[in-house]
Design goal:
- There is one protein chain.
- β2, α6 and β3 form a beta-alpha-beta unit.
- By secondary structure, the chain is of the alpha/beta class.
- The longest helix is centred in the first third of the chain and has 26 residues.
- The strands form two sheets. Strands 3-2-4-5-1-6-11-10-9 form a nine-stranded mixed β-sheet, with helices on both faces.
- It has three domains: 30 residues; 221 residues, Thiolase/Chalcone synthase (Peroxisomal Thiolase, Chain A, domain 1); 188 residues, Thiolase/Chalcone synthase (Peroxisomal Thiolase, Chain A, domain 1).
- 43% of the residues lie in helices and 16% in strands.
């Protein structure tokens, strides 16, 4: 037997082995979404314009200028009157929150969404193999993930993860973590819980850059049920196509543009600097350079490359391809932009060449529920479902941005037409498509000027 034959006999089994291993790993990388639930607070928790004004007036640290700034910010925030606030703030105890306040806030959001998730899917808590809970600003001992395990008496071998400090994009990070864990476990069920504790972190100082968080962040959250079990494929509503993460935290300005800190007087809060917009643009650009080639058709990628090359030749390198953008709608039909604020939504929409129709779900999610941190993307998804926009075969891009600074995005494929009930059910009729939504804060506070402030403040 010659050496060539021996090499052939050794090579073929090895090749078969590696192909089989690759196929098995690819099969385990599958990630299906079976269901998701968004938290909907009780009516007494709604933070309407009158209650917002009362909370502002309670802050004795504010002078007339700070008071006027805060009211003007609320006017332009894009927030409506039906967002939900934490109980200790609504009860006037924002300056002295307790550990019980934080735990109660988390219990209400987390257990409400999980109870609904288990009830609607018929999945038992004892069937869960992987649990990921992300809450950035609150890390008690035992962890919130352990609190969930204890409440639902989950199995002793459940893989439990508690993530903190990751900001508004933590939900997509959690999805990425679950997908990677699926590679090591067949036919698994996983839950991702995404929320944030607002009550203990209500800013009571007068630093303008730290007062902004009070105007935008609201109580809310979500729970998502995922699996890589092929026998459950027919029950899935979406399939994960790809996840891409980009981190620009090595840049000092990007790192510190969105950061938890104390002001000069010792009041703890969340600082949002003027560099936030640049950091978000930088992180999003780096992310999309990797993500878009994976989801857009080759024809569109070639068109973009040729058009950019031609423009550089005709107008010089300094043009940088300005004015020539990829047409995202050649491979994507829907866009879930993190509802972090009006400027973020409009800025992302403009840079991506999206229409008002495309950014409407994020804009209205901000208006109805506010910035609910890592849970915000799921309220945007819920709006699309309530409007019956999501059809089988459509592709949906989730765009999240958070402290670090990070941009973590993912693409889902819709597995069936979606039109189920969710947190939007009782309010969706108040949001006609492509209609201008009333701004209650503008109607009530836009008239305020320096002459009237003294009277209002008293």
């Amino acid at each position: 037997m010659d050496l060539l034959t021996v090499a052939y006999l050794l090579l073929v089994p090895c090749l078969v082995f590696f192909i089989a291993r690759w196929v098995l790993e690819w099969r385990n990388q599958r990630c299906y979404m079976l269901h998701y639930e968004c938290y909907k607070g009780k009516d007494e928790m709604k933070l309407n314009s009158e209650k917002c004004a009362q909370i502002v007036q309670r802050n004795k640290n504010l002078g007339l200028e700070e008071y006027r700034f805060l009211l003007r910010t609320m006017v332009s925030s894009g927030i409506g009157e039906e967002t939900y606030g934490p109980r200790n703030v609504l009860e006037g105890r924002e300056e002295s929150p307790t550990l019980l306040d934080a735990l109660s806030e988390m219990d209400e959001i987390i257990f409400d969404t999980l109870d609904n998730l288990f009830a609607k899917t018929g999945v038992s808590p004892s069937e869960i193999d992987i649990l990921v809970v992300n809450v950035s600003l609150f890390a008690p001992v035992p962890s919130l993930a352990c609190r969930v395990v204890n409440r639902y008496k989950m199995r002793e071998d459940v893989k439990c993860y508690n993530l903190s400090g990751l900001g508004c994009s933590a939900s997509v990070i959690s999805i990425d973590l679950v997908q990677r864990l699926f590679r090591t476990r067949k036919n698994a069920l996983a839950i991702v819980v995404s929320t944030e504790t607002m009550g203990p972190h209500w800013y009571c100082g007068k630093d303008r850059s730290m007062m902004l968080s009070n105007c935008l962040f609201r109580a809310g959250g979500s729970s998502v049920l995922l699996t890589n079990d092929p026998t459950r494929k027919d029950k899935a509503i979406m399939k994960l196509k790809t996840v891409v993460r980009a981190h620009v935290g090595s840049d000092d300005e990007a790192y510190s543009c969105c950061i938890q800190m104390e002001d000069k007087e010792g009041y703890q809060g969340f600082l949002l600097t003027k560099y936030l917009k640049n950091a978000a643009a930088k992180a999003l650009t780096k992310n999309l350079r990797v993500l878009l080639p994976k989801v857009l058709p080759m024809k569109e990628l070639l068109r973009y490359a040729i058009a950019r090359r031609l423009k550089k030749k005709t107008k010089g390198e300094s043009s940088g391809g300005t004015g020539i953008g990829l047409n995202l709608k050649t491979g994507l039909q829907h866009f879930c932009i993190h509802p972090g604020g009006r400027a973020i939504i409009e800025g992302a929409g403009k840079s991506l060449g999206l229409s008002e129709y495309d950014i409407e779900p994020s804009r209205n999610a901000l208006h109805r529920f506010g910035n609910t941190s890592s849970g915000g993307l799921w309220y945007v998804l819920g709006y699309m479902e309530a409007k019956k926009r999501l059809k089988k075969g459509d592709k949906l891009l989730m765009i999240s941005m958070g402290a670090g600074f990070e941009s973590n995005n993912c693409v889902w494929e819709i597995m069936k037409d979606l039109e189920g009930g969710n947190a939007w059910t009782d309010s969706i009729d108040g949001y006609p498509e492509m209609a201008k939504i009333p701004n209650p804060f503008k109607e009530k506070f836009d008239w305020i000027n320096d002459d009237t402030l003294s009277f209002v403040r008293i």
